[in-house]
Amino acid sequence: MNIKQVVLLLFVVLPGLSASAVSAYYLFPDWTELDKSHRNYQKIAQSPTSRERDLLMAQAAENRHRMNCFAEGIGVLLGGVIMAIGIHGLCTLPNQEKTS
Signal peptide: which range, if any (predicted)? Predict the structure, then answer.
């Protein structure tokens, strides 16, 4: 393994993989909270005794989780793109096998 391969692996592929993993780790709890918030918003919207203030509070909570999920999803995708760039770089390096 030559130095170019090591550099690409350490500074491009592994950081991309770790960025995707960390973003995915935080995405799934936010996703479950978004689902709960959406069900709560639907319940409040269908309730005949709900006030506008209650509906706006539930909508704000849902939007907060929706934005968090969006941001974490973008982090997963961006980490994947960075990792793919590194893998592409590894695949396109010229083969420098020593022949004796």
Answer: 1-24
CA dihedral 42, 44, 45, 47 (to 10 degrees): 120
- The residues spanned by each domain of the chain are 3-92
- pTM > 0.90: no
How far apart CA 68 and CA 35 sit, in angstroms, is 13
- Which of 23, 17, 12, 10 is closest to 88 using CA atoms? 12
AA identity, residue 18: S
Do residues 26 and 72 lie in contact, with contact meaning Cβ atoms separated by under 8 Å? yes
Give 34-90 pLDDT, tens digit per residue: 999 999 999 999 999 999 999 999 999 999 999 999 999 999 999 999 999 999 999
CA distances from 54 to 62, 65, 66, 68, 76 (A): 12, 17, 18, 22, 33
